[in-house]
C-alpha cells in the first residue's frame, strides 16, 4: 500500500511539472488527458448527451454540482466512466436516485453539490476508480488539478477529449473580495488565465495528495482571468458521506 501511494504521488508530481511547462491551449488552458490519468472523472449525461462532469466517490455514488441536475429526473440521467472521449469508449451506468443538497441556492449558487446513486455498482478497473474526500481545504497557493470536457472559450463546443489543467488555490479572503463566496466555497486561479468553463461543472478539483478538494461550480467568462469557484468538499464532507455506500 505504501509503495502504491508513493508511486501515485510521484506520478502526480511529474504530471503537474509537465503541465506547467506546456502552453495554454484548451479547457481554457488545458491539455488532452490519457486514459487512466483521471479514473475518478466521469461524464454526466442528460438523455445520452454530455451535460456536466462527475466524480466517483464509491462504487455506487457519483458527486456532481447541484445545478447540473436541476429539473432532471433520475431516469434521464446516466454517467459514462472509464473514457477520455465523449464519443467512444467507457461504460454507461444508469442513475437510480438524485440527492441534491437541501441548502442549494440557485441565486447565490451556494451548496452547489449533489450525490447521484447508480442503479448498479461500478466495476472498478485501472480506468474506473474512486477518489478520497478531503478533510480540509487546500492551503492558499498550493497546486491543484482540474479535469473536464468543457469548452475552451465561452462560445465554443465542448471538448471531445478529456482536458486537464494545473491551477493554484486562492486565498479565501481574496476569493471573497473578488467573487463574493462563502465559507462553503473555494477558488482557484491560473497564471496563464486558464481555468474551468461551461461543460466542466460538477467536475473534480484535486490536491497534490490526489484527494478531492472541490466540485466545480461557476466562474465569470472562460479563461478571462477571473477565479473559478468550487463547492468545498471538506465543508460538505459529512453531508456527502451520509449518501455514500
TrEMBL record:
Entry's Gene3D superfamilies? Trypsin-like serine proteases
Q: Which GO terms describe its biological process?
A: protein maturation; proteolysis
The scientific name of the source species is: Beauveria bassiana (strain ARSEF 2860) (White muscardine disease fungus)
Q: What is this protein called?
A: Peptidase cysteine/serine, trypsin
- Domain Peptidase S1: start-end pairs: 27-245
Q: Which GO terms describe its molecular function?
A: serine-type endopeptidase activity
Q: Name one GO cellular component term.
A: extracellular region
Q: Which InterPro entries match?
A: Peptidase_S1_PA, Peptidase_S1_PA_chymotrypsin, Peptidase_S1A, Trypsin_dom, TRYPSIN_HIS, TRYPSIN_SER
Give any Pfam family that matches: Trypsin
**Keywords tagged on the record:** Disulfide bond, Hydrolase, Protease, Secreted, Serine protease, Signal
UniProt-listed PROSITE patterns: TRYPSIN_DOM (PS50240), TRYPSIN_HIS (PS00134), TRYPSIN_SER (PS00135)
Q: Where in the cell is it found?
A: Secreted
Span of the secretion signal? Answer: 1-21
Amino acid at each position: 500500500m505504501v509503495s502504491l501511494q508513493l508511486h501515485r504521488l510521484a506520478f502526480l508530481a511529474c504530471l503537474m511539472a509537465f503541465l506547467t511547462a506546456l502552453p495554454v491551449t484548451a479547457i481554457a488552458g488545458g491539455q488532452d488527458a490519457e486514459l487512466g490519468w483521471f479514473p475518478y472523472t466521469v461524464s454526466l449525461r442528460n438523455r445520452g448527451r454530455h451535460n456536466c462532469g462527475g466524480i466517483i466517490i464509491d462504487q455506487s455514488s457519483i458527486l456532481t454540482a447541484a445545478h447540473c441536475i436541476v429539473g432532471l429526473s433520475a431516469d434521464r440521467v446516466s454517467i459514462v466512466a472509464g473514457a477520455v472521449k465523449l464519443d467512444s469508449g467507457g461504460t454507461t451506468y444508469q442513475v437510480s436516485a438524485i440527492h441534491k443538497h437541501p441548502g442549494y441556492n440557485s441565486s447565490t449558487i451556494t451548496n452547489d453539490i449533489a450525490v447521484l446513486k447508480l442503479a448498479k455498482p461500478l466495476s472498478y478497473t485501472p480506468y474506473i476508480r474512486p477518489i478520497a474526500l478531503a478533510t480540509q481545504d487546500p492551503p492558499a497557493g498550493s497546486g491543484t488539478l482540474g479535469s473536464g470536457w468543457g469548452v475552451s472559450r465561452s462560445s465554443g463546443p465542448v471538448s471531445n477529449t478529456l482536458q486537464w489543467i494545473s491551477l493554484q488555490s486562492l486565498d479565501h479572503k481574496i476569493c471573497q473580495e473578488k467573487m463574493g463566496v462563502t465559507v462553503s466555497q473555494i477558488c482557484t486561479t491560473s497564471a496563464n488565465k486558464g481555468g474551468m468553463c461551461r461543460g466542466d461543472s460538477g467536475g473534480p478539483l484535486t490536491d497534490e495528495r490526489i484527494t478531492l478538494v472541490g466540485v466545480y461550480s461557476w466562474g465569470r467568462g472562460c479563461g478571462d482571468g477571473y477565479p473559478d469557484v468550487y463547492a468545498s468538499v471538506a465543508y460538505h464532507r459529512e453531508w456527502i458521506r451520509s449518501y455514500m455506500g
